[in-house]
Amino acid sequence: MDIKSLWIMFWAPAVIFLPAIFFISRLKSKLFRGGDIKDALQIDQAGIRTATVTYENTNQRQSVVLFGMIHVGRPDYYEQISNRILAEEQAGHPVLYEQVKPSTPVEEAELSPTERVILEVFRRFSLIQRLMARAVRAEHQMSALAPSNTWVHSDLTVREFGQLLMRGDTAWRFISVVSWLETTASWLSLVPIAGQFISWLIRSVYALLLVVIILIFPPAMRRLRYIILDHRNAIAFQGIVRALAENDRVISIWGAAHLPGIGQLLQQKGFTLTQIEWFTAFNFRQ
């Protein structure tokens, strides 16, 4: 086992479980107000299930299918959903998806140190999710259900996310302070082995520090909640509206936490919930 793997094993429990305990204990009151998460995600002794919901506007003869997802699940969970999405795609219906990412490789190359800090934080969380998947013999969504070339990105870019974040509470301006660490890490990554490891270590440390900020500063959490949920729900809805201008049926793939908020926006536009289908991400009885 190499040094990097040992470091991951050391930090993973703290990075994964401590924030998880904090967030879960405040999930409904702080993160999911304005919508009932039970309508999109069910967790009980039997397992974990996510909802796929269909909204219809009979006057306009239009329908929207929202696939609620969790980012770590059993292979058969992603296989069932993938088959459903493939059938919709083959029927000629556009597929929209969430993912905060650089819009193009050129944009990634042009990110400022502050914006690159945010990108690296997302990458660290993705790494943690992949480690969790491996630990429970599961799959990560981006591996099992990777966006195809025909899907339409309907989310923030890293640059847009960073700009929104920096307009908020001053606690988030800590990102600017640690941006010089990203500059150092970028230079060190050019040095084989030792430099690359130190670069990886620096990025992991400041990613962990940003998690601590979320835990310590309530205003920072409120700002993050607004961007991650409310603002991105609106972006998802706008993407659906654009797609409906040329299609009578639209498929949208988002995390289960977004479904209540997106559903409310659809209902305000005259859509009605007509169908709920549940997919089992984990079966605890097996």
- Distance between the amino and carboxyl termini: 31 Å
Largest sheet: 7 strands, mixed
Helix/sheet category: alpha/beta
Low-confidence stretches: 1-34
- Number of individual domains: 1
Note the run of SSEs as H and E: HHEEEEHEHHEHEHHHHEHE
% residues in beta strands: 15-25%
Any chance you could write out the topology, listing elements then pairs?
Layout: H1 3-25, H2 27-31, E1 41-44, E2 47-57, E3 62-69, E4 72-73, H3 75-90, E5 95-97, H4 105-109, H5 113-135, E6 139-140, H6 141-144, E7 152-153, H7 158-166, H8 174-188, H9 194-216, H10 218-244, E8 249-255, H11 259-268, E9 272-283
Parallel strand pairs: 3-8, 5-7, 5-8
Antiparallel strand pairs: 1-2, 2-3, 2-9, 4-6
What does this structure look like?
There is one protein chain. The strands form two sheets. Strands 1, 2, 3, 5, 7, 8 and 9 form a seven-stranded mixed sheet that branches. The chain has a two-stranded antiparallel sheet with strand order 4-6. It has eleven helices and nine strands. The chain has one domain (3-283). Helices cover 56% and strands 18% of the residues.
What keyword list fits this structure?
11 helices; disordered N terminus; 56% helix; two-stranded antiparallel ribbon; 286 residues; seven-stranded mixed β-sheet; alpha/beta
Describe the structure in brief.
The protein has 286 residues and is α/β, with parallel strands linked by helices.
